[in-house]
What we know:
Layout: H1 23-69, H2 73-82, H3 94-121, H4 127-136
Amino acid sequence: MTAHDDAPATHDRIRPRPAGVDDQTVEALGALSKALETTERARGRLYDFHQLTGTADLQLDRAVELLREAGHPEWAEKVREEILGRNVIPGHWTFQIVEAYNATYYRPFQELEARALRELADGTDHLFEAEMKEERRTPGHPHHTPVPPTEES
Length: 153
């Protein structure tokens, strides 16, 4: 490792802070990005809900079949009529909930965060984290380099 490899991150090494962007703006954009990341996690759980509910609905086919084979056709029919293919909330299957969430909340949030980064930080993402990385790294430590190694190094 050369001294240059361990030098503090500069404009050609890691995300620089654009001119005129103050500490409060960096912190605010970091908080906005963190909120969007939390929304990403919530969206993942919504997809879990969607897939798990769909899997359960498909598993009901086997339950209906087994109830019939066990001599309980009335129960097989109750499961088929009352639960199989049922809306999870009035008028909605889970895919419709996912679609509504994406259109109503997720995409507008994603677009707003991107606009805020463009307008307030010249489109530079993760300024807060990049600066935190620089503050927390140990100079000279091989696992604390400012950027990944290049093919030349």
